[in-house]
Amino acid sequence: MSKLVSFVKDSYVEMTTKVSWPKFGELQNSSILVLVASVIFALVIAAMDYVFQNVLEWFYKSF
Questions:
Q1: Cα 11 to the chain's mean position, in Å?
Q2: What is the DSSP string of 38-58?
Q3: Where are the transmembrane segments (predicted)?
Q4: Nearest 10 degrees: CA dihedral of 23, 25, 30, 34?
Q5: Using alpha carbons only, what angle is made at residue 13 by residues 10 and 18, rounded to the nearest 5 degrees?
Q6: What pTM value is reported for the model?
Q7: How far from chain centre, in Å, is Cα 17?
Q8: How far apart are CA 63 and CA 58, in angstroms?
Q9: Distance between the two ends of the chain, CA-based, in angstroms?
Q10: Is the pLDDT of residue 63 over 90?
Q11: How confident is the model at residue 41 (pLDDT cuts 50, 70, 90)?
């Protein structure tokens, strides 16, 4: 049990004193970047899906 308590205490000290946390503005910029990249990626995948669907429909109807 003492090992667990020691681990938790050491982890707390590590997270509060030795880790450099980003500022709120940096987090906002990173979040916006991830959101924009995700939307662009989703649009590209949707466009590919639409094109493949129409190409396959045309291909199957031609036979």
A1: 26
A2: HHHHHHHHHHHHHHHHHHHHH
A3: 32-52
A4: 140
A5: 120
A6: 0.65
A7: 27
A8: 9
A9: 72
A10: no
A11: very high
- Domain residue spans of the chain: 21-63
Q: Which two tokens stand for residue 7?
A: 């681990």
With a CB cutoff of 8 Å and minimum separation 6, the contacts of 7 are none
The answer to whether 30 touches 22, Cβ cutoff 8 Å, is yes
For tokens 């590919």, what's the residue?
48
- Supply 41's token pair: 């990626």
Residue 30 identity:
S
Which tokens hold the place of 19? 């880790």
DSSP state, 16? I
